[in-house]
């Protein structure tokens, strides 16, 4: 019976993970659609700016265009800020963050492997501890060991953290991976 129970638990976890990934994909797709709409709006506003400048050119007084150009520029700035917010949300859903050098890294990276920038982490929120009676009973059987073949990886000379093949800095301690 324990085999069937383990199989059921494994399948349940797989279904839960698949459901979460599907929901995440749907949300990311919606965010990409919103970004696309905002970019089209920016293009439309650029065309309006161009039209206003051309009309002012024809009237031989470019200062006439200023009154219609400034509100369009403000609207474009607002749309760009919204796009940045939507892109940040996508990275959050993917558990990623972007370095100031433009490199996208996993959220828990401490140092950018591309430029060595140190990421600051916010203070963790306090965690509520359940009373002993509400805790789940501990599993008495030890999990079976899983044998995994290790692939050859480079490690940091300073802290021995695994390094990506193209890393120039350690993502854990920021030490330069000099060649």
From TrEMBL:
Source taxon at top rank: Bacteria
Pfam families, per the entry: DZR
Residues covered by the DZANK-type domain: 100-174
InterPro entries per UniProt: DZR
Protein name: Zinc ribbon domain-containing protein
């Amino acid at each position: 019976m324990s085999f069937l129970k383990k199989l059921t638990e494994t399948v349940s976890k797989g279904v839960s993970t698949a459901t979460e990934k599907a929901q995440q994909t749907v949300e990311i797709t919606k965010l990409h659609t919103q970004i696309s709409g905002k970019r089209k709006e920016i293009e439309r506003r650029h065309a309006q700016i161009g039209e206003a400048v051309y009309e002012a050119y024809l009237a031989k007084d470019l200062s006439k265009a200023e009154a219609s150009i400034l509100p369009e520029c403000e609207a474009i700035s607002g749309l760009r800020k919204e796009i940045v917010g939507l892109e940040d949300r996508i990275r959050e859903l993917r558990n990623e963050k972007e370095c100031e050098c433009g490199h996208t890294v996993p959220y828990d990276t401490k140092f950018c492997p591309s430029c060595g920038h140190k990421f600051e982490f916010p203070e963790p929120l306090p965690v509520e501890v359940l009373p002993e009676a509400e805790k789940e009973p501990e599993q008495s059987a030890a999990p079976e060991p899983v044998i995994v073949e290790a692939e050859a990886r480079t490690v940091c000379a300073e802290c021995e953290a695994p390094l990506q093949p193209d890393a120039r800095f350690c993502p854990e301690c920021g030490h330069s991976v000099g060649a």
